[in-house]
Amino acid sequence: MPILLGLDTGGTYTDAVLFDPDQGVLASAKALTTKHNLSIGLKGAIEKVLPHLPAGIRPAEIALVSMSTTLATNAIVEAHGAPICLILAGYDSKALERANLKQALGSDPVVFIAGGHKPSGDEQAPLDLEAARAAILEHAPKVAAFAVSGYFSVRNPAHELALRDLIRDLSDRPVSCGHELTSKLDAPRRALTCALNARLIPQLQQLIRSVAGLMQEKGIDAPLMVVKGDGSLMDSAMALACPVETILSGPAASLVGAKHLSGEDTVIVSDMGGTTTDIAMLKNGRPVLNKEGATVGGWKTMVEAVAVHTYGLGGDSEARIDEHHGFTLGPRRVVPLSLLAMQYPAVLDIMRQQAESDEMVQYRGQFALRQRPLDTGASGLSAGQQQVWDRLADGPVALSDMIVGPAIARNLQRLVDRGLVVISSLTPSDAAHVLDLQTGWNRAAAELAARLFLKRTPQAGWHPPKDAETLCRDVVERVVLQSGRAILDAVINTQARIDDHHWGLLGRYLVQHSLSPKDTAPADDLFDAVLSLKHPLLAIGAPVGSYYPEIAKRLNTRLVIPKFAEVSNAVGAVAGGIMQRVTAVITSPAEGLFRAHLASGNKDFHELEAACEHVREWATATATELAKAAGAAEIELFHERDDKIFEQPGGMKIFMESNIAATAFGRPALATA
User: Fold this and answer.
1) Which residues pair with 451 in a beta bridge?
2) For residue 619, which of 637, 592, 595, 593 has the smallest C-alpha distance?
3) 99: DSSP letter
4) Which residues pair with 31 in a beta bridge?
5) Partners of 88 in the β-ladder
6) What angle do CA 554, 285, 555 make, to 5 degrees?
7) In whole angstroms, what is the distance from residue 142 CA to residue 518 CA?
8) Side-chain half-sphere of 268: how many Cα atoms within 13 Å?
9) Measured between alpha carbons, how far is 70 from 514 in angstroms, rounded to an integer?
10) Where is the Hydantoinase A/oxoprolinase domain (predicted)?
11) pLDDT digit string, tens, across residues 170-209
């Protein structure tokens, strides 16, 4: 029987499962994710699960290793990532104001050069290779990767390909091209998707290299696959070229895993991890996809992925006082102090000293520590950032000791934004330890974390509760309220296309009233508001047992928490198949002329059916080739054609365009003993 090893590297935990396609999960294990060196957490999870291989089965006989990861999603939500240079060919400067492109890029350089194409695929201006050469030589030493997007490159990728080749000639930096990631129009969104892809390359490289090295160490000679955002799998080499495809890899894997673990067909799935809560839906046993493009952390990409709503709320979300919203959680992930004290016992003594002091000190109960190594190939740190980085060389440092001025605070924040440093403070996981809803970490540190939080200066209408236990109950209540609101936001958006920004005062009041505990409602209320889910709520992820029974109760629905819910992502990593979808469009730039826009080049025809047949053959061959490259065996093919024809009054029909797609599907090829 083939034994498969499924892995998931999340923001807090790394999971491993041994999976038999016929019998299901044979064993599971967890280890803490170690962002400063991912191989430590991966090794811990793998070494915990391998001893549970069936009798007579050696690691060398494992037939497949597959992994999902929330690292790409978390990096976008938390605005972490390597510095890049975006080169835009044929764009005008106003493009930065669309699709939130300027905000997404932050301080990363953007270079505008002449070039690009027209909707017909014809060149709108010659490509300025000299300007491109100067920009590449200037920025290559300072960035980790390049992103290239040409105007109407999906109608003709020639300029993107020329820029890609030039970057490869002049530097050793990886490069992402927009036309390779999507075939859809919308130049600013395509540029955004391309930029995110480039920014994620170094992080995914670290993860894949860690897994490959561990496989070699353990004698596992099997294909290594990665879960895509639509729940299908791809070979690790392909993942390195297109890491943006792993946006929502974790949620997609969790949906596939949830189906296998629960047997449910149509359910609302909420996956709560350490950093995010991901809400999606299974319909008739299949993940519902968002073909318009995944939205993560407010960025609307062009990656076809599961229709998931991602919220910055998890077990490790930062409890904080917001000047506008009062006491709230997230969206930033921090290290729970109960976990930090378990890993670094000296932290507990510092927290005790802070709790015993009545002196008004800012940043009590907060620490900083390194999260991962410096970016490979990226520019060096500024002098101030280097000073902060060096201060953290020996482990966590109390912020009250470190931050002695605004300059240090700014330098620390920059390191946090780059994902190099992480903050530790009070989280729902700490509150759950105090209330005995969760065990395993340092409960004493969790209690001190709550006591130190109570010493914060009241603001924004928030007044500290009477004691640490009450504060912790308030934290759990915030998890319930914010999770319930997120679930309602997701289902209302899906059904009515109305997001929470358009609820208005009445909508927000009704949602809040429905989610609030009924025993706290004023006796003189004149009406009640009850919002109910029409489908069961399937909750997965390590923290859900602490919060979701109450969440489901307030949403008036049946709760399903399947066995092995805490490792659903790792199960989904090995339970899925490989799928590659290739699309192309045919336009009519002139009467009687039909132009096929292909990544291999444009081709003109005088008959629509001849053009469609050519595109169908090209898409079939390309999808098959990609599926084989992704590691598929026994490939099945599916085809779609959508002709857009405008009918004028009087019956005259005008051809607009034809979209043709070929989908290749197959199970991963397994290693043979």
Assistant:
1) none
2) 637
3) T
4) 14
5) 112, 149
6) 5
7) 56
8) 26
9) 31
10) 190-332
11) 988 888 888 877 777 788 888 888 887 787 777 777 778 8
Torsion angles phi and psi, residue 59, rounded to 5? -55, -35
| Span 633-665, pLDDT tens digits | 888 898 988 888 887 777 777 888 888 888 888
Retrieve residue 411's tokens.
Answer: 């330098």
Burial class (CB in 10 A: 0-12, 13-18, 19+), 644: exposed
Contacts within 8 Å (CB) and 24+ apart, 59-62:
59/218, 59/219, 59/220, 60/219, 60/220, 60/221, 60/673, 61/3, 61/673, 62/3, 62/4, 62/5, 62/220, 62/222, 62/671
Specify burial of residue 133 (Cβ count, 10 A radius: 0-12, 13-18, 19+): middle
Closest CA to 475 of 332, 275, 271, 320: 320
Q: How far is CA 350 from the centre of its chain?
A: 35
Domains of the chain by start residue, with CATH = 319-474 (no CATH), 577-668 (3.30.110)
| Of 38, 179, 68, 43, nearest in space to 121 by CA | 179
What whole-number percentage of the chain has pLDDT above 90? Answer: 36
All residues at 6 or more sequence positions from 372 whose CB lies less than 8 Å from its CB, including other chains: 35, 36, 37, 206, 419, 420
Distance CA 59, CA 74 (A): 31
Separation between Cα atoms, residue 660 and residue 638, nearest integer Å: 11
Can you tell me which residue has the tokens 């914010």?
482
Residue 332 main-chain phi, psi, to 5 deg: -75, 140
Q: Which residues, listed in sequence order, are joined to residue 667 by a DSSP beta bridge?
A: 633
Provide the β-strand partners of residue 664.
Answer: 580, 637
DSSP string, 381-437: PPHHHHHHHHHTTTS-EEHHHH--SHHHHHHHHHHHHTTSEEEEE--HHHHHHHTTS
Distance of CA 611 to the CA centre of its chain: 38
What's the burial of 291, exposed, middle or buried (CB within 10 Å: 0-12/13-18/19+)? exposed
